[in-house]
């Protein structure tokens, strides 16, 4: 029915999470109906983000400035660091506004199955940040999955000889739960009831 150009747009959109071919088609129809108020602002926003997109060299967040807004924010407590697997987890936690400190994105989790080793994610970078000093609390906010917990345990071992309060998210995260799917209430409770890391 539609031209190849429009089909290409539908196909591209249908690859986004949460959008299948049907909803992509609906979205495109919506864009085409009122291009001035829907398509043009999206296009402009995307171009702007695309032109300035960077990964923060300090924490691994994705932003349009480096260091990112969070690392640059003087109101945040630089002594507290929350370690997460992915940028999506950082955004989910940051949205809850419950953690007053800064973040560190690992960019994955240890996985024997997928062959992800400590040197494949930003663990050494985390240790370097801690070694530089000025950090007195590290919160391990890994997903409540086997791999997430393996990662947390490994990091706890690597950090055990540093003078830090080390804690990890506790109750409220369902087993197998992924942080960026949790509602803010659950996330808030998990952060409030974080517990010292045991077994190190
Ligand atoms: Zn940053």
UniProtKB/TrEMBL annotation:
Classification via PROSITE patterns: RECR (PS01300), TOPRIM (PS50880)
Protein name as annotated: Recombination protein RecR
ZnF C4-type: positions: 56-71
Pfam (any one): RecR_C
Domain Toprim: 79-174
UniProt xrefs under PANTHER family: RECOMBINATION PROTEIN RECR (PTHR30446)
Superkingdom of source: Bacteria
Keyword Iron assigned: no
The UniProt record lists the keyword Nucleotidyltransferase: no
Record-linked SMART domains: TOPRIM
Family: Belongs to the RecR family.
Stated role: May play a role in DNA repair. It seems to be involved in an RecBC-independent recombinational process of DNA repair. It may act with RecF and RecO.
Keyword annotations: DNA damage, DNA recombination, DNA repair, Metal-binding, Zinc, Zinc-finger
Record's signal peptide: none
């Amino acid at each position: 029915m539609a031209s190849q150009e429009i089909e290409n747009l539908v196909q591209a959109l249908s690859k986004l999470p949460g959008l299948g071919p049907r909803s992509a088609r609906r979205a495109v129809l919506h864009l085409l109906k009122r291009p001035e108020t829907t398509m043009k602002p999206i296009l402009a926003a995307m171009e702007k983000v695309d032109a300035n997109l960077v990964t923060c060299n300090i924490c691994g967040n994705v932003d349009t400035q480096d260091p990112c807004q969070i690392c640059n924010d003087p109101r945040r407590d630089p002594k507290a660091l929350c370690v997460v697997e992915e940028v999506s987890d950082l955004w989910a936690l940051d949205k809850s506004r419950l953690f007053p400190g800064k973040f560190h994105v690992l960019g994955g989790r240890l996985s024997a199955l997928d062959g992800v080793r400590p040197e494949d994610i930003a663990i050494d970078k985390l240790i370097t940040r801690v070694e530089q000093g000025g950090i007195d609390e590290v919160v391990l906010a890994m997903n409540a999955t086997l791999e997430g917990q393996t990662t947390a345990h490994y990091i706890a071992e690597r950090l055990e000889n540093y003078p830090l309060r080390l804690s990890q998210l506790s109750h409220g995260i369902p087993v197998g739960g992924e942080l960026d799917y949790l509602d803010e209430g659950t996330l808030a409770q998990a952060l409030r009831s974080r517990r010292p890391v045991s077994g190190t």
